[in-house]
Structure formats: C-alpha cells, structure tokens
Amino acid sequence: MVREIMKNIFAVGVNDWDRRLFDELIPLPDGTSYNAYLIKGKEKNVLIDTVDPTKERELIKNLKSLDLKIDYLISLHAEQDHSGAIPKVLELYPEAKLITNKKGKEFLIDLLLIPEERFITVEDNEKISLGNKTLQFIFTPWVHWPETMVAYLLEDKILFTCDLFGSHLATSDLFAKDKERVYISAKRYYAEIMMPFRTLIKEHLKKIKNLEIKMIAPSHGPIYSEPDFIINAYEDWVSDKVKNEVILAYVSMHNSTKIMAEFLISELINYGIKVIPFNLTKTDIGELAIAVVDAATILIGTPTILTGPHPAALFAIYLINILKPKTKYLGIFGSYGWGGKTIDIVKNLFTNLNAEMLPPLLIKGYPKEKDFDLLKEWAKEIKEKHQNL
Ligand code: FEO
Question: Are residues 202 and 265 in the same domain?
C-alpha cells in the first residue's frame, strides 16, 4: 500500500503485523513496520531506505504502483531491516545511485555485497538537490550503529530519522494519532535500542532542535505530525532525572527470595515509592527495559544456585548492564543454602552503570525475624536515598 504523507512524498514501506521477535531477542508484542519513503522531485526522485528482506516483494509492488524512476536510493542506516531490499531495488532500477556515508558504504558492502560503483558517499551536512527540493544529511552516529544519519527535507521541513524516534508498532495509522499507545511503544523502542547511547542522543537532540520540523518520519512505527510529542519524550528519557520508583526483579526457587521480595514491595509502597516487580521466570524483557528507563533504583533478588546467582537473574543483570539505564541505586538480595559467590559475581557484572551499590542483603535459608528487620532497614535506606533525589 502507498500513501501520500505530503504532496509528492509517499510512504512506500510495509507493516510486519506478525513479527514477534527482533534480533531473536526483543519481543514485538505489536509487530513492527519497515518504513520507506519516496520523494518525487522536479528533476530527481529519491527512495529513502528499504525494508526487511522478508517484505521485499511488497516494497517492490508499492514502488511499481507509483511508476516512477528512482535516481537516488538513500541508506540512512545499514541494518538489514532497512537495507535488506537494497540489492533488489538496485537491480530493478539500474540507473539508481546508492547514497550513504563512508561507514554506511563499508557496512553495505560487507553485509549485502553491493558493488562499489553504485555508491555516492556524503559528508555531514551535505545537501543534494532534487530540482525543487533539497535533502540535507545530518550525521547522528550511534543511534544505534556508527553510520546512522538522518535526512532533512528543507522545503517541506520533514526529518527522516530511520531508527531514531521509531517504535516497533504495526498500525493502520499512518500518523501517531493514538498517543498513549505510541508513547509506550516508542519508550519500549528507546529502552531496547537507544538507551545505551543516551549521552550521544542528548547531543543529537540539540542539533535536531535547531531545525524547523513539521514532521518526523522514522523507519519504524507511525509518523509524527506533531514532532514535539516525540522530541519532548526523548528529552525526558535521556535527561538525568530519575523517578521515585524501584524496579524489583527477582527469581525464587523455594520461596525464600520471593518472601523477601514481597516484604520489600510492601515496605517500599508504604514509604510512597512506586514499585514495579518482575518475576524473572515470566518477564517480557521489553517491559523490564521500559521500566528501567527512569527508575531511581533497581533491586535484583536471586537465590544462590550451586555457587552463584540463578541464571534468570544473570540474564536480567547482563541485559540491564548493556542497556545502561540512568539508575542511581542498585541492590542485590536473596537467600542461600550453604555458601557461594553470588554477591561477587553480581558486583562484577554491573560494570556499565554509574550507580551506587547498596549493601547486599543475602540471608541463609528462609527469612526469619532478624532478616525481616534487616529488610525493613534496607527499605528505609532506599526511602532516604529517594528523598534526596
Ligand atoms: Fe531498524 Fe537498526 O534497524
């Protein structure tokens, strides 16, 4: 299906309604879309990005229905969900040149074996003319690969951002109308894909805010006809502000750690703290990623199995560590039977977070009166830290 988003600018991408996993890791509860845009200029026509190879036929059908030549094919990001159909488009449009930056070119040659002679490389801020329209390339490295860039259509004031500001959301809405749904989906996307690059995104946002933008057209999810909606959301997520929230992610084998978790949840709620618990045996890791975007504290509860933490806890710790949330406080609690190195192992895994580690709280066996007293003290310490946020 082709839809015109503005005069002579067409959405030619494809919804992937049924996809439920990305990178064999990230859950996609709402599917996703691979957006591509065709701009018809007075002299030149441009296709911005393509689609995942699994949807190549639908993209080609959309392009054929417009019956236009393609002079330039722009690759804003070389990951295959946007670049996968480039070889087919280049084959069907032999006159088309592939525009990207130097790093993008290297990736596209490595990943898709595209011949050198098809490329035109651009520099940061370089412009190309389509006759009556001008596209400017603005480099935004590490959102989320080193080559990522955005393109600004000067006359129509549209910013094409590829993954940046995207959402894994297959919807019949061309524009972000259902704001509540899009917000959650975009936050999930930010948490899973963009959060590790939070400090770089802050800088990119400064550049983007200098532009007059009427529309942001990402390569996943609906288009933003009110760009402030997503820019403001990003400014909030990348800021250093944290919320009075505790993420309590735990796994329990014989209930001891679970009893501790439930006791902590009650104590923290009584202190007016919002608690978001995750039983790690049943957790959608996207939900966990969203939750850690702006929580002040993350607590991990684990039993000791053999000599260390439960593998479900290890997976969550590894994931949180690579996502690099702005969390201020970390805590580890749980129960052990006869020993082990749980604390040391966990401490050594949290290498990326700039957070203060609370004194660990590991108890032997089932929690007893004195252990509940320790948990009370722990909750109180967290409350006091949150009061000083
Ligand atoms: Fe949507 Fe990084 O690809």
Answer: no
